């Protein structure tokens, strides 16, 4: 797989399967690419692409309807063209001007199309963290911009109408909706690559790249998710050949206006600390790193240091460093997202590192690794924890187009089932003030790998969305939690192993008692951790957690 990924081929990673003499994978290849593989000893079987249903595109009248009735606009009869996605953002702003604003990104696409983000921010809380949601980087993955449009409509509608937020059988209370919008800054770029989407809808349904003109070549397009400044020159999972149909990385990092727009968002809004990039297909939830296996023990082995063996998973010669607390957060959050998806209609997404075989393969210059890497390069920047969702079910070989562009009735179901995953991600990013985030980092640093304390903590973290919902329903309890955690966090900021403060524990005790009643499943863990904290007042956290 490493050798194949280095050739820049358009391979469908969700189709990897074992075989008696190795592995097989489906792809969309040119005649020249097939010939090259055959010459190098690969067995290539050419399959006819099975007939697919006509592309369902929303009728133009939907845009006109949007001006009068955004409710009708929320359930179009097909995939939204670029103009209607822009119209959707306009409708959100027009309908909810108090908490929805358009952020016009600074650069138009190569073909001159403006690119917009919707910013959702309610309440009067000045200091808050941000979340960035992206879709449509790969042009043929039509489902994901529509998914984000549906999600932002239903989220803002629940806030505006003071109702619960439902995704099929899964419901979030209005207090949770208000907590998210009153506490977070949510930025949504539903369509990163508008030129590519328009080309898919009018000319080539398998097109993946943007529509850049490549100097010195008649071939057009750059893979915008291989154009970011993360190991750009390594060539891992990309190609420098402009005529490659899918994974040409461009002449240099950030050569494309679409990627410079995303960098601009992260630079101009430095409080963004969480990002989800939505792709298709395969039912996967993936977290960094994408270039090689993760490890948590050797900080010196990292992407800033040249290494000849980078990009080959499972060889143990090189592995990418990630702090243990980050890996724990990723696994916990991705698990919550997976479980939320399953509750809608039973779909079971796979949680794994981006590079993990057999479903995925090494890549470089992707947006998720770039966003996460910024803090490693410049610690003054806040850490952006990033996750990629690959929506839509795996499909039989020869039917890959159906994975990227399922019939619209199925697409609607995929949109619904992924809605709760985005809510869970936002809840995981959100804490009652930065104090909780700082304290969670401190606890992750000192918690033992096994034992009763670890089990109680992990169980409580698995219930964090319900805990946050309970706190949202009782503002006094939420304020008490924020005050106590802020005190502990202030100590954490100045001490790697802070001493448990008696006043903070006193303030947290009634909050824990309330949560034990509001979330009964959390009661044993809360009681155990409260007792441990009370008896450990005056001791360093590391000693308390190991007692």
TrEMBL record:
In short, the EC number is 3.4.17.18
- List GO BP terms, alphabetically: proteolysis
Q: Which cofactor does it need?
A: Zn(2+)
List, alphabetically, the Pfam families matched: Peptidase_M14
Catalytic activity entry: Releases a C-terminal residue, which may be hydrophobic or positively charged
Active-site annotation: 390
Can you tell me which family this protein belongs to? Belongs to the peptidase M14 family.
Role this protein plays: Carboxypeptidase that possesses the specificities of both mammalian Cpase A and B. Thus shows broad substrate specificity, being able to cleave Cbz-Gly-Leu, Cbz-Gly-Val, Cbz-Gly-Phe, Cbz-Gly-Lys and Bz-Gly-Arg in vitro.
Which PANTHER family does this one have? Answer: PROTEASE FAMILY M14 CARBOXYPEPTIDASE A,B, SLL0236 PROTEIN
What's the protein called, per UniProt? Zinc carboxypeptidase
Q: What is the lineage of its organism?
A: Bacteria, Bacillati, Actinomycetota, Actinomycetes, Mycobacteriales
């Amino acid at each position: 797989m490493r050798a194949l990924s280095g050739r820049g081929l358009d391979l469908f990673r969700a189709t990897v399967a074992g075989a008696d003499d190795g592995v097989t994978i489906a792809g969309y290849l040119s005649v020249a690419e097939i010939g090259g593989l055959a010459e190098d000893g690969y067995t290539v079987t050419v399959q006819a692409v099975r007939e697919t249903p006509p592309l369902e595109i929303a009728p133009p009248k939907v845009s006109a309807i949007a001006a009068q009735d955004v409710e009708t606009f929320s359930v179009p009869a097909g995939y939204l063209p670029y103009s209607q996605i822009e119209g959707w953002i306009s409708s959100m702003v027009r309908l909810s001007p108090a908490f929805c604003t358009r952020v016009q990104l600074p650069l138009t696409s190569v073909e001159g199309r403006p690119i917009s983000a919707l910013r959702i921010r309610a309440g009067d809380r000045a200091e808050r963290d941000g979340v960035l949601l992206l879709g449509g980087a790969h042009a043929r993955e039509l489902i994901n911009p529509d998914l984000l449009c549906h999600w932002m409509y239903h989220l803002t509608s629940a806030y505006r109408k003071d109702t619960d937020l439902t995704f099929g059988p899964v419901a979030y209370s209005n207090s949770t909706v208000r907590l998210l919008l009153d506490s977070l800054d949510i930025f949504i770029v539903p369509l990163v690559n508008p030129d590519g989407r328009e080309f898919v809808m009018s000319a080539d349904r398998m097109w993946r790249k943007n529509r850049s003109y490549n100097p010195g070549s008649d071939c057009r397009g750059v893979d915008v998710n291989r154009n970011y400044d993360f190991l750009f020159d390594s060539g891992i999972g990309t190609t420098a050949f402009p005529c490659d149909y899918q994974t040409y990385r461009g002449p240099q990092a950030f050569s494309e206006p679409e990627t410079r727009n995303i960098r601009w968002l992260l630079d101009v809004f430095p409080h963004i600390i969480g990002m989800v990039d939505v792709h298709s297909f395969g039912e996967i939830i993936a977290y960094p790193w994408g270039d090689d296996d993760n490890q948590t023990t050797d900080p010196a082995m990292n992407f800033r240091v040249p290494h000849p063996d980078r990009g080959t998973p499972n060889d143990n010669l090189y592995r990418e460093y990630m702090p243990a607390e980050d890996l724990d957060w990723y696994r916990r959050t991705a698990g919550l997202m997976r479980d939320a998806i399953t509750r809608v209609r039973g779909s079971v997404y796979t949680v794994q590192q981006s590079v993990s075989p057999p479903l995925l393969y090494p890549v470089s210059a992707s947006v998720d690794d770039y966003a996460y890497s910024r803090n490693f390069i410049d610690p003054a920047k806040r850490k952006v924890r990033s996750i990629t969702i690959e929506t839509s079910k795996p499909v039989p070989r020869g039917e890959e187009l159906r994975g990227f562009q399922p019939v619209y009735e199925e697409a609607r179901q995929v949109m619904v089932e992924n809605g709760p995953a985005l809510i869970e991600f936002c809840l995981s990013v959100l804490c009652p003030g930065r104090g909780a985030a700082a304290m969670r980092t401190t606890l992750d640093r000192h918690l033992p790998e096994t034992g009763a304390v670890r089990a109680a903590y992990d169980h409580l973290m698995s219930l964090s969305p319900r805990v946050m919902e309970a706190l949202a329903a009782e503002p006094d309890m939420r304020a008490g939690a924020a005050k106590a955690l802020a005190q502990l966090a202030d100590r954490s900021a100045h001490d790697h192993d802070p001493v448990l403060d008696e006043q903070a524990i006193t303030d947290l005790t009634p909050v824990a008692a309330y949560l034990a009643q509001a979330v009964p499943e959390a009661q044993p863990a809360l009681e155990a951790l409260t007792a441990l904290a009370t008896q450990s007042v005056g001791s360093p956290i590391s000693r308390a957690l190991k007692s």
